[in-house]
Design goal:
Strand content: under 5%
Number of helices: 8
CATH topology: MetI-like fold
Distance between the termini: 48 Å
CATH architecture: Orthogonal Bundle
Helix content: over 70%
Number of strands: 0
Order of helices and strands: HHHHHHHH
CATH superfamily: MetI-like
Length: 223
């Protein structure tokens, strides 16, 4: 184990950095996707509700590994061969980010929808009675209160997204698990390699979990 740490420690830490970068990028775009489809899910418009529900059901119904293969291999093939006139090529980072953003975005949409619906309906009615439009009332009154309750859940979703990055080793992105496979192949030390990788994940996820609990306590005190 000491040999792995001294020889490959820097490589594993770099891979951990790539893993965190991929998770952050995925979560950033997932927040945008989730906010859009979450709001669509609560609008008083039947069509937007249906579109939101279809997106959530389809993405959550497809295994992450299948989604990764579809984005990385299927999408470029579709544009390059079936449409023609296009030359589309996705790097592992781009495909991984899209995959995580879509997968996490579907869950974020449900978090946003539930967060908005948790705000008392009287808040919207009071804002409308003061002359605010529906959009302004949603943006200035309802969403700030909803986001306050959603922050701890966002952190928990980041933890899930961080662990999901390991699946993207199948498309060749050099994240922590993919790098660990190479280290194991070079050293033939399976137990030690995966013990170190597991410990690295455990440290990062524990820090994030503690942060989520601290944020939740502070938000509860401020209410």
């Amino acid at each position: 184990m000491i040999r792995i740490i001294t020889v490959y420690g820097g490589l594993l830490l770099t891979a951990l950095g790539r893993t965190l970068l991929l998770a952050l990028l995925g979560l950033f775009f997932a927040c945008i996707i989730g906010m859009i489809f979450g709001i669509m899910g609560v609008l008083k418009n039947r069509l937007s509700n249906i579109i939101s529900q279809i997106f959530v059901d389809v993405i959550r119904g497809v295994p992450m590994i299948v989604l990764a293969f579809f984005v990385y291999f299927g999408v470029p093939y579709f544009f390059n061969t079936m449409i023609g006139g296009f030359t589309v090529s996705l790097s592992a980072l781009q495909a991984g980010t899209i995959c995580l953003a879509l997968n996490c975005g579907a869950y974020m949409a449900e978090i946003v929808r539930a967060g908005i619906q948790s705000v008392d309906k009287g808040q919207m009615e009071a804002a409308r009675s003061l002359g605010l439009t529906y959009g302004m009332a949603m943006r200035k009154v309802v969403l700030p209160q909803a986001i306050r309750t959603m922050i701890p859940t966002f952190i928990n979703q980041f933890i899930i997204t961080l662990k999901d990055t390991s699946i993207l080793s199948v498309i060749g992105f050099p994240e922590l698990v993919n790098t660990a496979k190479n280290v194991q192949a070079n050293t033939f030390m399976s137990f030690q390699t995966w013990a170190i990788v597991g410990l690295m994940y455990l440290i990062v996820i524990t820090i994030l979990s503690r942060s989520a609990k601290v944020v939740e306590r502070r938000l509860n005190v401020g209410r």
